[in-house]
Amino acid sequence: MRIGILTSGGDCPGLNAVIRGAVLKGIQINGQEFVGFRDGWRGVVEDDLVPLGRKDIQGISKQGGTILGTSRTNPFEGEKGGVDNIAAMMERRGIDAIVAIGGEGTLAAAKRLTDAGLKIVGVPKTVDNDLGATDYTFGFDTAVQIAVDAMDRLRTTGESHSRCMVAEVMGRHVGWIALHSGMAAGAHAILIPEQATSIEQLAEWVKSAYDRGRAPLVVVAEGFVPDHENDAHSERGLDAFGRPRLGGIGERLAPMIEEATGIETRATTLGHIQRGGTPSAYDRVLATRLGMAASDSVNEGRWGRMVALRGTDIVHVSFEEALGSLKVVPQERYDEAAILFG
Amino acid sequence: MRIGILTSGGDCPGLNAVIRGAVLKGIQINGQEFVGFRDGWRGVVEDDLVPLGRKDIQGISKQGGTILGTSRTNPFEGEKGGVDNIAAMMERRGIDAIVAIGGEGTLAAAKRLTDAGLKIVGVPKTVDNDLGATDYTFGFDTAVQIAVDAMDRLRTTGESHSRCMVAEVMGRHVGWIALHSGMAAGAHAILIPEQATSIEQLAEWVKSAYDRGRAPLVVVAEGFVPDHENDAHSERGLDAFGRPRLGGIGERLAPMIEEATGIETRATTLGHIQRGGTPSAYDRVLATRLGMAASDSVNEGRWGRMVALRGTDIVHVSFEEALGSLKVVPQERYDEAAILFG
Amino acid sequence: MRIGILTSGGDCPGLNAVIRGAVLKGIQINGQEFVGFRDGWRGVVEDDLVPLGRKDIQGISKQGGTILGTSRTNPFEGEKGGVDNIAAMMERRGIDAIVAIGGEGTLAAAKRLTDAGLKIVGVPKTVDNDLGATDYTFGFDTAVQIAVDAMDRLRTTGESHSRCMVAEVMGRHVGWIALHSGMAAGAHAILIPEQATSIEQLAEWVKSAYDRGRAPLVVVAEGFVPDHENDAHSERGLDAFGRPRLGGIGERLAPMIEEATGIETRATTLGHIQRGGTPSAYDRVLATRLGMAASDSVNEGRWGRMVALRGTDIVHVSFEEALGSLKVVPQERYDEAAILFG
Amino acid sequence: MRIGILTSGGDCPGLNAVIRGAVLKGIQINGQEFVGFRDGWRGVVEDDLVPLGRKDIQGISKQGGTILGTSRTNPFEGEKGGVDNIAAMMERRGIDAIVAIGGEGTLAAAKRLTDAGLKIVGVPKTVDNDLGATDYTFGFDTAVQIAVDAMDRLRTTGESHSRCMVAEVMGRHVGWIALHSGMAAGAHAILIPEQATSIEQLAEWVKSAYDRGRAPLVVVAEGFVPDHENDAHSERGLDAFGRPRLGGIGERLAPMIEEATGIETRATTLGHIQRGGTPSAYDRVLATRLGMAASDSVNEGRWGRMVALRGTDIVHVSFEEALGSLKVVPQERYDEAAILFG
Fold it and tell me: Which residues bind Mg(2+) (chains A, B, C, D) (predicted)?
């Protein structure tokens, strides 16, 4: 069988380990051969392929990013997109099946293509860990570790200056990275999109930590929205003066905390360093196992299904199940973490 | 309720996070107070206690080792040991229950004491991840990460000299650390106690990697025993000349590989660096959650039970279940990893 | 002799190693005893002291920040400040001499106090490495290493998305951190305050790297000012619309690069993580040696002098010499680095 | 001009940065072109060359090891070795000059070849930092940092078990790595080849640290020889029973310390991890600058000279000067470090 692999959406530590796992298992056990689509769906619709042999994947599992490149191209848009064109390209290229490594959008597209008769299996990819039907997604552990390393550094500078330090981490829609990195770093407050925390509550946490002689550490997910920004202006991304709001939530929170507590506060936005570079050992193992399982999925003709982690096992779940809903931080997990604040 | 906490056996990254989690949850939610026994069961039988208040646990979750100290003391030995003495000490000190953080031996002792009527809950601790009834134990992830960082370094020196590099990791009875670190580092051979690999097979793996232009990386668990050492001499820890065998399995394997393949081979024994220092973010989160759950176990009177990880949940299992059997590497997990060798 | 130590200004990795080095050398060799002033000059003018014995400095050299705390208090301001008050406090407290660890401002203050007859020796502290009369200052190596680790991560995400990545590092007045981290990370452009680089030149570097198939990496010091911001508006910190300019230079450069090159560009501001956390081995050794030398300076009565690094030797230089001028990046060092851009 | 580059002897972090620096400077400024000899002098005598263009050196400065490979081949041995054969090969290949990156042996060979009329410039390479005429050699900083990271881990396990931990680091003939890593890690004893420390003195240091409530950390260079091994047996590498001595000095010291102090002692040999993997930022900058300077040396016809670091400058020194003598740890530097033991 001839398989095309693609990596789509934002890059994520572990993508190369998935590719390596799939190719090694496929070549040596499942009698498969592989090609790579360049830059995700762009390579599919533009027929941009690279060979993917054993040599090409040597030693890549510790490399960050993706050797295939990635993009946010929508496979149904443009004159070269759509089911028929993709089917024709696969026919022309002699590609029997596609292994699509990507997030919500990619899996949704994969579902549409599968429903239309194409042979596709999925590998879930989201550094935010916000996908249901899998305990964890690769890349998440690395992102959390990078954030915690940074927070360990922020604490010593905070303590030396008796400052409150705010660390903004990834998480547009869910707070998993903030929750885990905050718990690991001993944060005195964790703000996530799932929880509408008031500035008053935040100020109370910060003050009580400060009064205990600690340099308060506040961890905030980029997608957190403070009450008072929940208004027409904010929805349009405008500030109080009606001008485009600049800076992330971390930078906007710092002055609010300073005003509400009188404690000097500084913000740091970790940004892209959370998703690049060498994956953690945990992510390399998980990603490698998922890649190998994806090769098996093709071998067994499990079209329309993605591989996932359940406990210590790799399982297969339907795209429907996977796409069912965003995996948010449950109330009990947040409450559990909140006990450590006070 | 007044609770005594102890950490017993070999140290393990995350012990302090367990202590912090238990104390914070206990003080703030469960109305408990805490004391610490110094050096595990030694502190119990010798009545050596330290106060364990909120101040004492500030910022310790990122510290390696254990602030309480540890030892391999057996609580049933010595004139001050045994159920009655321990019960009397608890009575005298007004200690209602004990949270015992330790491995197989500690949990077995805890079981005997519980069966005798004492109030004890357990927290599993084994850097080797060899305990049943829990998906993972804290400390394991850190050990694997440290091993992988070292292997990433060994590879570049191996490649520069076209050498085979042997890395000996922890794992006296099971190969979990070797399996995960080897998978993550892209090892060309992984040797674990559960698998009787012949030197011929090993040489074949090494040669085939070498012939593909790679610098072979061999990961071996300290407990692996090569066929030819499975004899009377070896059982008594003697070498072929009947003299005490010196050096670990890694150092003993290197010359065997060199002789069998003609490829220059060097061994490195990672040793104690695998179990010390700052825990990984994964271990800090897991250990903190286990500690909090232990405080709840006491609150709910779950005597004779230990906390454990199942998927993403913290559950409670009986000591019986936990002590049932050593969690070895299953054949399918080894076969999965072996696909990556060739 | 009784010595008071203070750490002043922004925190810097290695401060604790200086303190430890001075106290150990002083207690064991020079027959000195020590106290610490809390929060730099604030502790001096407010008579806020802590004992500084052998126990207090155990194991602190690997801790980031400063155990004494720091502030930006000016010792000549306020009713409790000034030479006479400080002299009186020293008299009252039986303090014979002060070891002042700080930057330009602190050393200038120390000079004034020394000129007025107080016994003070200095230890240079600037993470920016912008102080003359010393080859390097402690903290600089750590900051550069942290920046490089972050850039290594940014590169893989840039390469996966074919993006230009901009990394903003510390350096308000000089570009040493940008120069060294950029050279180490293989940057395609380095922008520093000492060099008036045009957006056209920057765009050319970025495009040529992109055309060679690289994901361009731009390293910019926070103090770099683009030509077109060199106007009345900018001097007042206003943007083109006359409103307060928000965001650092990195964030402001990204859209300029994108517009000038058509290449998608993302910025990351490393911020406070560069100055916190465990010092590098290099900085621990340098800071420890400087601290020990400071104890000797007091012993030898070298008032009005600071310790410094020359080659591999620790030397003593007068405050005058040290304060002579800001150590900027020489043209030849920038040209040397620029060869690596193209 | 056409230049051949070679890397010889043990690998060392930074070798690739030297290669990259030389090639980039040479191609862009000095109008040079490059080829690489594979595996050091072996490639020279066996005429084994690889092209070394701009593409070949992209992104290699953060890679450990050497992309050219290395060996311990002596260029004067074998029928294909010697001045005439090498001169003929250079003639045949159109190679005008050689940049030899290596240690004492390589530079000595380079000197002989230069004396015989060949055009060679050198770049000093020794992870042990034992070469005179340069303040530091690249690779040393990385090795020290790796050792210190490991020691930071060993300390927490030592403290948890109240054990003495012995860390064996590189340094066959000199103790620079032991001295710097020991100072940075806060070692209670440092044993180096330059200093004949008695077991009694060592035991005293260990006990005094233990009595102060510390877990003693002993750092020993692999080349240190205890008094009682200074006998005929030892010189022949035999143990007291006349059998081949197995294990490094660290493993041999542990039982001696345990016997002399009664303190449980464990040894760890860091071994090859000290010389592999990503170079530190310091070493990347130093190595890059040395490589660029080597290209200039060729351009300026500085045959028989090597590039070196003096303070913050790159200078040129003759092979004679460089080969003059082994750079040992001076007594005052050891005494300085010893103050921190007690």
Answer: 104
Give pLDDT tens digits for D249-259: 999 999 999 99
CB–CB of A271 and C271 under 8 A? Answer: no
Query: pLDDT digit string (tens) for D131-190?
Result: 989 999 999 999 999 999 999 999 999 999 999 999 999 999 999 999 999 999 999 999
Q: What percent of chain A has pLDDT over 90?
A: 91
Per-residue pLDDT of D75-103, as tens digits, reads: 999 899 999 999 999 999 999 999 999 99
Residues C64 and C42 in one domain: yes
In the prediction, which pLDDT does B245 show?
56
- pTM here is 0.96
The last residue of one of the domains, among D256, D276, D296, is D276
Q: What is the mean pLDDT of chain C?
A: 94
Whether residue B65 and residue D160 make contact (CB cut-off 8 A), yes or no, is yes
Same domain assignment for residues C102 and C144: no
Cross-chain Cβ contact C281/D340 below 8 Å: no
Q: Which domain holds residue B37?
A: 2-126+279-324
| 0.90 surpassed by complex ipTM | yes
Q: Do B273 and D64 touch (CB under 8 A)?
A: no
Q: Is residue A251 part of a domain?
A: yes
Give me the CATH number covering residue D8.
3.40.50.450
Q: In the 8-state DSSP scheme, what is residue C244?
A: B
Give Cβ neighbours of residue B232 (< 8 Å, ≥ 6 apart).
none
Q: Verify that C88 and C145 share a domain, yes or no.
A: no
Domain count, chain A: 2
Test B65 with D162 for CB contact under 8 angstroms: no
Q: What is the pLDDT of residues A276-289, one digit of tens each?
A: 999 999 999 999 99
- The yes-or-no verdict on residue B145 having pLDDT over 80 is yes
> Looking at the structure, do residues D63 and D162 belong to the same domain, yes or no?
no
Q: Chain D contacts of B65, Cβ < 8 Å?
A: 156-157, 159-160
Closest chain D residue to the Cα of C181, Cα to Cα: D281
CB neighbour class for B59 (10 Å; exposed up to 12, middle 13-18, buried from 19): middle
Contacts of A315 in chain B (CB under 8 A): none
A67 with A86, same domain: the answer is: yes
pLDDT score, position A325: 82
Could you say which of D278, D282, D311 has the minimum Cβ distance to residue C135? D311
Q: How far is D16 from chain B (nearest CA, A)?
A: 11
D164 part of a folded domain = yes
Specify if C135 maps to a domain: no
What is d(CA A106, CA A110) in angstroms, rounded to the nearest whole number? 6
Active site residue C130: no
Q: Same structural domain for residues C164 and C263?
A: yes
Same domain for B19 and B94? Answer: yes
Name the active-site residue from C39, C47, C96, C128.
C128
Q: Which of residues 252-271 of B touch D (CB under 8 A)?
A: 266-271
CATH number at residue B259: 3.40.50.460
**C-alpha distances in angstroms, A281 versus A268, B142, C18?**
26, 9, 36
Residue of A nearest to C245 (CA): A246
In a domain, B135, yes or no: no
Q: Which of A11, A39, A128, A130 does the annotation list as catalytic? A: A128
Predicted pLDDT of residue A324: 79
Q: Which two tokens stand for residue C190?
A: 């380095």
Active-site residue, from D39, D128, D141, D283: D128
Q: Which C residues 110-169 touch D at CB under 8 Å? A: 135-136, 141, 144-145, 147-148, 152, 155
CB-CB contact of C176 with D285 (8 Å): no
A247/C246 Cβ within 8 A: yes
Mind listing the pLDDT tens digit for each residue in A295-326? 999 999 999 999 999 999 999 999 999 887 89
Q: Residue type at B170?
A: M
Q: Answer yes or no: do C179 and C283 share one domain.
A: no
**How high does pLDDT run on average in chain B?**
94
